[in-house]
Amino acid sequence: MLTFTWIFLVAVALHFTIESWLEARHGKHVASHRDVVPARFADAISLKAHQKAADYTLAKLRIGKWSGLYGLVLLFIWTLGGGLAWLDGVWTAVGWSSLWMGTAFLISFAMIGTLLDLPFSLYNTFVLEERFGFNRMTPKLLIIDMLKGIVLMLLIGVPIAAVILWLMASSGDLWWVWAWAFWTGFSIFMMWAYPTLIAPLFNKFEAMEEGETKAGIEALLSRCGFESKGLFVMDGSKRSSHGNAYFTGFGKSKRIVFFDTLLKQLTVHETEAVLAHELGHFKHGHIKKRMLVMFATSLAGFALLGWLSDQLWFYQALGVPQASNHALLILFTLALPHFLFWLAPLSSWFSRKHEFEADAYAASHANAADLITALVKMYEDNAATLTPDPLHSAWHDSHPPAPVRVAHLETVMGTEEGMKTA
Asked: Residue 234 forms beta bridges with which residues?
């Protein structure tokens, strides 16, 4: 067995062990606090709702454990078990050129992966989400979504895969620079194309109706100096009762989208406060910062790909006997997460820092008390636990836990009151 095979096995084992330990901590912590609503939320959230959130969290952890084991088995089948080598042999026997054979390899791997993930996807949707009252998906809609996804994969995935493989084969030793530039350009294009061309294929987006909510939002946008393509309501209730709101696009294609479920949950002023939080992300440049980080890390990834492309040991150690550009891309995608999982806490820390900054911005342009009540409603309606394990949360959560986030907002409120009376 090659040295890198052992390194890979150790990395995977370490990743799986740490994740299992964190999940066990999280489950124990949530279960131990199941029967008492945190004092700060006792007047707003019933014990029944708190217990539902705990049970929902524990149920997701249980299915996540089995999903993780299943994914681990698939990883070893694809790599050391010879699955990728087999798939490569299937397409090699077809006799196509290396470019189109490689493209077929990549697309078929993606499609097989989607099918292999289907059992857990179906369970999550029609058993787990259904049990807790969140699912609105129907089998017919699921099939339609899958067919649309396959068509999009072919229309978008085939050209992308073909161009990347062509650049790898024809651009010399610095092919990875050109491939990165192409990928970056495509990513920017998708930021424009997704809200205007792709998202409407799956959901209906309607301009927000005139009324108190729209008037309040437009007044907020004016105060914040923000311009957008428009305010839209998305039929999120078509698939789930979970609520959300988000920005999408950039430049003149920026859109503000509210799930219809969210608008039903919140008052007008609470909706304004939630939007002010999202505006805070924009005003603090969080979106641009995340894009720059994404582009920088992808450049590092392509540079590493460029070096690994000539290292036969990398392929052989992961179950592929011969080097090829298409196998390199898949092996890299499968192996890398197990070597970089320790960066998750750093990423989560930066994300939570951005959330605090956006909350502070919202408190200065809307009512912080409205944002607090909105957050409490969203935690309750989405059955998000109020008592996550602190270490698990620090490792994984992009948003601060509810008690921490509310306490921060209350501190901001107190500071502002102090400034007014000074």
From this structure: 205, 259
The first and second tokens of residue 206, run together, are 């309607």
> What are phi and psi for residue 310, nearest 5 degrees?
-100, 5
C-alpha closest to that of 25 among 391, 403, 402, 418 = 391
For 100-132, the DSSP string reads HHHHHHHHHHHHHHHHHHHHHHHHIIIIIHHHT
Average pLDDT, the chain: 90
Q: Which two tokens stand for residue 189?
A: 């294009």
Residues 6+ positions from 28 with CB-CB distance below 8 Å: 389
Could you give phi then psi for residue 232, rounded to 5 degrees?
-130, 150
CA atoms within 13 Å, Cβ hemisphere of 82? 3
Nearest to 327 by CA among 128, 159, 33, 92: 92
- Cα–Cα separations (whole angstroms), residue 404 to 314, 359, 399: 44, 12, 10
Helix (H/G/I), strand (E/B), else coil: 209: coil
Catalytic residue of the set 129, 355, 359, 370: 359
Single out the residue of 41, 58, 31, 25 nearest to residue 405, CA to CA: 41
Residue 194 DSSP one-character state: I
Choose the catalytic residue: 88, 129, 278, 389: 278
Side-chain-side CA neighbours of 391 within 13 Å: the count stands at 12
Q: What is the DSSP letter of 397?
A: -
Contact 376, 406 (CB under 8 A): yes
The answer to whether residue 278 is catalytic is yes
Q: Strands 205-207, 231-234: parallel, antiparallel or unpaired by DSSP?
A: antiparallel
Strand order in the sheet with 255-259: 205-207, 231-234, 255-259, 245-248
Which residues, including other chains, have CB under 8 Å from residue 364's CB and lie 6 or more apart? 416
User: Which neighbouring-strand residues pair with 248?
Assistant: 255
| C-alpha radius of gyration, the chain, whole number | 24
| Strand, helix or coil for residue 234 | strand
Q: List pLDDT tens digits, range 59-93.
A: 999 999 999 999 999 999 999 999 999 999 999 99
Nearest to 74 by CA among 31, 30, 40, 120: 120
pTM of the predicted structure, to 2 decimals? 0.89
Half-sphere exposure of 261 (CA within 13 A, CB side): 18
Pairing of strands 231-234, 255-259: parallel
pLDDT in tens, 193-250: 887 888 888 888 888 888 888 888 888 888 887 776 678 888 888 888 777 777 776 6
